[in-house]
Amino acid sequence: MDWEQHYLEEHTPWDKGAAAPPLLEWIEANPDALAGRVLVPGCGLGHDCRALASLTGAEEIVGIDISPEAVKRAGQEEQAGAERYELADLFQLEPEHRQTNDWIWEHTCFCAIEPDMRNAYVEAVYGALKPGGNLLAVFYLDPYDNEHPRGGGPPHGCTLEELEERFVKSGRFEELESYVPKKSYEGREGLERVIRFRRVG
User: Angle at Cα 77 formed by Cα 73 and Cα 80, nearest 5°?
Assistant: First the structure.
């Protein structure tokens, strides 16, 4: 998918103009948990990054995206705190992003990539986290509707069984929490799952 072209053509239906409600809900329930350095892959226009910067004690939030236009626009928004944006590919991270992050916030990146790239995704986030670092994620389990037919994504859905197979049974992560968020974007109610994984080793 040509993400850059979508941004240039202003065709970004995944962008809701505000931070992900499950992220805001989690921060409210865990106000002092997020700290250190946070990586946000597929950050888009940076809504989640700004929420992380303004609502947590994180020292640095780095949003990365493969679309130059998205990174440019994110950087043009009023800065909320310690957030910054970089043109970067999660699957080809520079050394400065490897084993340097205390947290990763996952929102829409996993469901946007082709499913056959998901094992590589697990390796990428594992490699980006410090030992014992946390992957906090909201996964879109059932994104299918008239606009997004099954098999025609993105977004691509997933199951809890698949997530356990890829993350936990790989030996890379342990699961610390998992629940259906009470707050979601309109139309996603009951279709998402918040999971926090911790890197093993």
Answer: 135
Task: Report whether 135 contacts 73 (CB < 8 A).
Answer: no
Which residues make Cβ contacts (< 8 Å) with residue 201, sequence separation at least 6? 131
The structure tokens listed for 106 are: 């996952």
| Single-letter residue type at 186 | E
The dihedral built from the CA positions of residue 4, 10, 15 and 19, taken in this order, carries a sign that is positive
Residue type, 119: N
Round to the nearest angstrom and report the end-to-end CA distance of the chain: 34
Considering the entire predicted model, what is its pTM? 0.95
The amino acid occupying position 195 is I
Fold of 22-199: Rossmann fold (3.40.50)
Three-state DSSP class for 154? coil
The secondary structure of residue 98, as a DSSP letter, is S
Note whether 129 and 101 are within 8 A (CB): yes
State how far the Cα of 37 lies from the Cα of 139, in Å rounded to an integer.
22
Q: Give the residue extent of every domain in the chain.
A: 22-199
- pLDDT digit string, tens, across residues 183-195: 999 888 998 999 9
Residue with tokens 């250190």: 36
Q: How far is it between the farthest Cα atoms of the chain?
A: 43
